[in-house]
Amino acid sequence: MTLALDAAAQDLLFREARSANTFTDEPVTDEQIQAVYDLVKYAPTAFNQSPLRIVLVRSDEGRERLVQHMAEGNRPKTSTAPLVAILAADHEFHEELPRLFPHFPQAKDAFFAERPAREQSASFNAALQVGYFIIGIRAAGLAAGPMTGYDAAGINKEFFPDGDHSVLAVVNIGRPGESAWLERSPRLAYDEVVTTV
Amino acid sequence: MTLALDAAAQDLLFREARSANTFTDEPVTDEQIQAVYDLVKYAPTAFNQSPLRIVLVRSDEGRERLVQHMAEGNRPKTSTAPLVAILAADHEFHEELPRLFPHFPQAKDAFFAERPAREQSASFNAALQVGYFIIGIRAAGLAAGPMTGYDAAGINKEFFPDGDHSVLAVVNIGRPGESAWLERSPRLAYDEVVTTV
C-alpha cells in the first residue's frame, strides 16, 4: 500500500467520483453543506487567509437571477440541480487576517495593503479552496458539477454588488441522476506531467 | 453520519493534517509521488484540461537553483525537506485538449485559441489541481508544506525558460519533523463564509 488513505475513500473522492450533469430531486440540506464546510475549512491557504465565500442558491428567484448569466449549455443543469453554489474570492479577506493568522498579525499590512496583491492572492487561494470544496462535496457522498461557463461580470454584478468579490466557479450539487456523465476522458500520463531536476 | 467519508480519512486529509515546516530525513520516493498523481489526476478540471505540471527537485544542483529564488523565511525548510515540488500551470495545455476531451474536440479552437484566455483558464484550473495535489500528499500519509513566498519571475526563468509555464506554488514534502507546526489558527465560522439567496 503506497497510500495511507483506504481504498474506499480513494474511490469515493477520486476514482469513482464524477462531475454530474444530471441529478435526482433528493434535496441537499444546509446540514450537509455545513458538514462539508466544517471538514474542508481546515485545508491550507497562504497565511490562512481563507478567501473563499459561498452563496447557496435556494430560492426560485435566486435561481432565475443566476441562470440568466450561465452559458446556454449549462442552463438546464443549473435550473434543475437540487442545490447550486456560487463560489467566489473575497478581495477584502485581509480585514479578517489578524484574527485568522495571529502568529503574524503584521501580514495584513506587510503583504496585503494594496488591492492588486490582494486580488491575486485571493484568486489563487480561493481556487485552492474550490478544489477542497469539490472534494468535500464528494466526501458527503454527493456529486458536484463544477462550471466556469458563465458571464462572470454579470454574476459579480448580480450577486456581489459591493465590487469586492469575484466568482470563480458555480457548482451544481446533488445525487447523480440518469445518464449523469459521459465516459471518463483520458488523463495525462505521469511522465507527461512530472519531470525531475 | 452526515459525511460518507469515514472518520479516519477525514482526520488524515483534513482534521489532523497540517502544513509542515520541518521534516525528518526519511526519503520521499518516486513511487509515492506516482501513487499520489495516479489518484488525484481524476479530480475535475474544465474540459479536463489538466494544466498542472510538476517539477520534482531531487539533485543538489536543482535545490540550489530553487532555493535562491525563495523568500528568506522559506529557505531553511526548502533546503532541508526530503523532496520539493514546483507546481506550475502550462499555458499551452490546449495542445493536448483534443486527446483529453474527445467529446468536444472543437474546444481547443473555440475557447482557447487566444493566449490570454488560455493563461486565465490554466491559472485557475491548475490552482484547483494544486489543491488536489496537497490532499493527495496527505493521502500518502505525508505532510505538505505549500509556499507562495518566492520570486515567481525568477523561478519561471530558471525552470521554465520556454516562457509557457507559470509557477503557482512550491511544496515541501516529507514526514513532519520536530516542532513541525505552530498551533492551528482559527477558521472562519460557517455563517461568515456561507450566505443563502
For the biggest sheet of chain A, the summary is:
4 strands, antiparallel
CATH class of chain A: Alpha Beta
Determine the structural class of chain A based on helices, strands and strand pairing: alpha+beta
The largest interface is:
A-B, 81 and 82 residues
CATH architecture of chain A: 3-Layer(aba) Sandwich
Count of DSSP E strands of chain A? 5
> Helical proportion of chain A?
40-55%
Task: Look at the structure and give the mean pLDDT of chain A.
Answer: 97
Number of separate structural domains of chain A: 1
Task: Describe how the helices and strands are arranged.
2 copies of one chain form a homodimer.
Chain A: H1 7-15, H2 30-40, E1 52-57, H3 60-67, H4 75-80, E2 83-90, H5 97-100, H6 107-112, H7 115-139, E3 143-147, H8 152-159, E4 165-174, H9 190-193, E5 194-196
Antiparallel strand pairs in A: 1-2, 2-4, 3-4
Keywords (chains A, B): Flavoprotein, FMN, NADP, Oxidoreductase
GO molecular function, one term (chains A, B): 3-hydroxypropionate dehydrogenase (NADP+) activity
Organism (chains A, B): Streptomyces meridianus
